[in-house]
């Protein structure tokens, strides 16, 4: 039995987003985003309840300040005490995990969506996803961009405006475009 386009998308395989099931999921997310993004004046607990309606997981005390944008929501997993500031964008065609206590600055963009390098496949509308994993107690500065498939280790720091094109080791500080290690992990007392 052949996999549906939605199953192929979730598995990180080539798929086309013009599939009816995928478009229905996107429409449901857009409707949810309208409600969530109108909820800025609500108490954090009320916004947390809204997040729990759509996200794959949302830990205790996690907060996303609206406006917020994502593709599906159900592929996004937040640990406890995660904070995303205003205007974050997460393209979650596959799983995006954000670990406990991670803080994400305004206008950060996290992309799990990718496109074939072959121009004919792109022209025909094919795309795929690569999971993004962000560890615990990570700090991501405003305007940073994380590209598909990257893993950020626990306790890492990502400078404002950095473009993260490859994995970031635990405890490292990276900055720039493309992001490079500017400070290796230092032992803590």
Automatic annotation (TrEMBL):
EC number: 2.3.1.-
GO MF: acyltransferase activity
Entry keyword set: Acyltransferase, Repeat, Transferase
Record-linked SMART domains: Mac
Domain of life of the native organism: Bacteria
Entry keyword annotation includes Glycoprotein: no
InterPro entries registered for this protein in UniProt: Hexapep, Hexapep_transf_CS, Hexapeptide_acetyltransf, Mac_dom, Trimer_LpxA-like_sf
Gene3D superfamilies xref list: Hexapeptide repeat proteins
A Pfam short name: Mac
Boundaries of every Maltose/galactoside acetyltransferase domain copy: 6-60
Similarity-based family: Belongs to the transferase hexapeptide repeat family.
Official protein name in the record: Sugar O-acetyltransferase
Native organism: Lysobacter stagni
